[in-house]
Design a protein that fits this description.
- Helices cover about 35% and strands about 20% of the residues.
- The protein is an alpha+beta fold.
- It folds into 2 domains: about 270 residues, no CATH class; about 60 residues, Wnt (Wingless and Int-1), C-terminal domain (Endo-n-acetylneuraminidase fold).
- Strands 1-3-2 form a 3-stranded mixed beta sheet, with no helix packed on it.
- Helix 3 packs across helix 7, helix 4 crosses helix 6 and helix 4 runs antiparallel to helix 7.
- The chain is globular, with a radius of gyration of 25 Å.
- The protein binds 2-acetamido-2-deoxy-beta-D-glucopyranose (NAG) (4 copies).
- The site of one 2-acetamido-2-deoxy-beta-D-glucopyranose has 3 residues, from loops.
Amino acid sequence: MRVAVADGLTMLLSVVLLLLLLSVERCSSVKWLALHRVKHRPWNTRNNCSRKVGLVKQQIKLCRDNLDLMPSVARASSVSVETCQSQFSDRRWNCSSILLLPGRPKDLVRGTREKAYVYGIAAAAMVHTIARACSIGVTTKCSCGVLPNTPPSGTFKWGGCGDDLHFGTYFTQKFTDATLRSKTGKVKKSTKAMMDEHNFAAGRHVAQNSLVTSCKCHGVSGSCSIKTCWKALPDFDLIGAALKERYALAVEVKRRKRKKAHVLLPIQPGRDSFSRDELIYYAKSPDYCYPDEKTGSVGTRGRLCDPMTVGPGNCGPMCCGRGADNFTMEVVERCECKYYWCCYVKCKACTRVLNLSKCR
Ligand SMILES: *[C@@H]1O[C@H](CO)[C@@H](O)[C@H](O)[C@H]1NC(C)=O
Ligand SMILES: *[C@@H]1O[C@H](CO)[C@@H](O)[C@H](O)[C@H]1NC(C)=O
Ligand SMILES: *[C@@H]1O[C@H](CO)[C@@H](O)[C@H](O)[C@H]1NC(C)=O
Ligand SMILES: *[C@@H]1O[C@H](CO)[C@@H](O)[C@H](O)[C@H]1NC(C)=O
């Protein structure tokens, strides 16, 4: 009798646990990418920090304490959206569902490599915009990056104001990882949370490792006898491209138990680890050829393709063998522009006919 009661309890507990796990699996940790919708609005009151704009409970406090940094967070969101869509414009999966956040598009909820890319780019973009915000002085919480402690070689000296990567990384980790904590503040240990945490970190590392040296010349009439250099982040497109390479090489992982702890390990035989700047995933991607509600694939019907190009934008791979229809489109462009003294430019309007193809 007592055994039966215990069994009943265990079962009830298991059901509760399962429900908890399912609710964890269903939410997205990049809802805040929806902030691109409010990027032109000012952040002036604590009431601006709400679920409505895409923040989760644990981010609302951070937002209230850092209203001065929120325009940079919102800019990170739009930079992520633009970069993801331009990097994947010639792919079957073209990052279109990112616009559905804070909803739950399936392709960004399942543990696929596409989701891994979006999480990586989101974290990298935030490191970038916050580090920039520091060096241009929008906040008193941070300022210029520390000067490199390696002595400069040759004829320049370190100076100027570098991007504050240290603070950018610190703030980004706090902000993104807030989504990976349960209401009680504990770090979630589901497979999904572990994947998300790693890919956020990978994005931060890719941004950190992309620093370039920028210099400015001084001296008589630009002779460059004195040169000042500092460490700055490159154009974000370069970071987006670096992450796309990691997307192509993303490591498939599986949850395993090692010394009583759950870890993610590569499924590839003979490989027992992945590095901190590799993207990881655990769910196989569909081919994204046809609409499928289960995977969030929207299919490629109607997508533009190029019959002449080599690569993924070619009509063969893009249309998955269904073929393409040719059509023409007239575009009006400014042309034969002339400069008139002083001071205006006058152009003619020319129509150009484009030969285009779209997938059946
Ligand atoms: C913040 O609140 C003010 C006043 O209600 C509003 O004008 C502004 O657009 C809000 N900003 C955002 C980012 O929602
Ligand atoms: C991406 O694909 C969707 C769905 O096929 C399409 O509506 C959208 O125009 C595409 N975006 C770009 C930039 O090609
Ligand atoms: C569309 O145009 C391409 C190149 O201009 C050509 O190779 C192809 O046969 C055309 N397709 C159809 C269905 O007319
Ligand atoms: C578009 O196609 C037409 C007819 O096939 C051809 O005469 C024209 O040169 C093409 N235009 C371009 C820009 O390729």
